[in-house]
Automatic annotation (TrEMBL):
It comes from the Bacteria. This is DUF1642 domain-containing protein. It holds the Pfam family DUF1642. It comes from Streptococcus suis. InterPro entries: DUF1642.
């Protein structure tokens, strides 16, 4: 991943398992309602989100940098 690429989270309101997570080792995606899953990240690049499904991009929210 390019260091300058912006990161996003994808959360779909009204879906019981509404946040998109990516498995760091297998690169497989799943929706989950939890805050975090061991071995998964919810911080995704635009490319990763669109690779999963272009329609998810409309739900992308930029991650606030601290």
């Amino acid at each position: 991943m390019n260091k300058q690429e912006r990161l996003y989270t994808v959360e779909i309101a009204g879906v019981s398992s509404g946040k998109l997570f990516k498995n760091i080792r297998t690169n497989k995606y799943l929706f989950h309602s939890g805050k975090g899953l061991k071995g998964y990240t919810d911080r995704l690049t635009e490319t990763e989100i669109k690779q999963k499904d272009e329609r998810l991009w409309q739900f992308a929210v930029p991650v606030e940098e601290k």
